[in-house]
Amino acid sequence: MKVAFIGLGTMGAGMAVNILKAGHELTVHNRTREKEEAVAQEGALRAASPKEAASGAEIIVVCVSDTPDVEEIILGENGVIQGASEGAIVVDMSTISPTATRCITEKLGEKGIKMLDAPVSGGSEGAQHGTLAIMVGGDTAEFEKALPVLKAMGQTITHVGAIGAGQITKAINQIIISGTYLTVAEGLTLGMKAGLDMQKIIEAISGGAASSWVLHNRAMNVVNNTYPLGFRVRLHQKDLKIALDTARELGVSLPATALVAQIENGLIARGYGDDDVSAIGRSIREQSGLE
Fold first, then answer.
1. pTM for the full model?
2. Nearest to 51 by CA among 106, 22, 88, 19
3. Residue 275 CA, distance from chain mean position
4. Contact criterion met (CB below 8 Å) for 60 and 148
5. H or E segment to which residue 105 belongs
6. What does DSSP say about strands 120-121 and 132-137: parallel, antiparallel, or unpaired?
């Protein structure tokens, strides 16, 4: 299948390489053009703009940071909408506003271009290994056509409903893991303050009801107070803003999510916005007198 991939950041680069490994023909574009080079060495073609990348592609994957970026890449002067053929499918794997997703879909539809919203979870490790969880909103026909490309990037691929449903599902995901990051940090900090062997504590609780992806993959970040990049604090905070805005529209109370968002605001203000989101542990450690 002929695929375009736009956005080769922490997540996108690994995802694009996995599309190549699955045997698809791939053209890539990134705003910082140097980031295209590594994927080009794996066999991808390079395009000078989203418009050029989209030309002739059956599936056009977009994976960038925020709503304005997606709007510019898809609808801008040199955007996907200017180059994509009628019947092409845009698969937006960014995490953005569900409302904006529906508006973009409507504008693409005026040109006969289809769209799926397909945000992901699984961190940079999942992007590299092709094991992401992918939450897809859109029509069934488009989902089935895009499925071979999605399978190259993900292990758990779920069609969750109409357009926009993928973004709401991702908001649910981010709400739940935000609380997990916070409570993992709190629990581990209690253990450290008590002078316990944290390797043994993590081993003990990993086999029970407290087990989680965060505990297995990020617990030692909190113990060591080092937060190498997996998923940036500032991007997670952006995702929580989307979740809180969506909850406000629907009349849903999210007190725990609002608390985590405030903790992340503080981390960003102190210059930790590019740390991994497990840096929530930094705040809990400091408040508990470990620093």
1. 0.92
2. 88
3. 15
4. no
5. helix 98-109
6. antiparallel
Q: Which residues are catalytic?
A: 170
CATH of 2-162, one of 3.40.50.460, 3.30.450.40, 1.10.10.10, 3.40.50.720: 3.40.50.720
The fold of the 168-287 domain, in CATH, is N-(1-d-carboxylethyl)-l-norvaline Dehydrogenase; domain 2 (1.10.1040)
Domain boundaries, the chain: 2-162, 168-287
| Total residue count of the chain as it appears in this document | 291
Per-residue pLDDT of the chain (291 residues; tens, 9 = 90+): 999 999 999 899 999 999 999 999 999 999 999 999 999 999 999 999 999 999 999 999 999 989 999 999 999 999 999 999 999 999 999 999 999 999 999 999 999 999 999 999 998 889 999 999 999 999 999 999 999 999 999 999 999 999 999 999 999 999 999 999 999 999 999 999 999 999 999 999 999 999 999 999 999 999 999 999 888 999 999 999 999 999 999 999 999 999 999 999 999 999 999 999 999 999 999 999 997
Token pair for 51: 């418009």
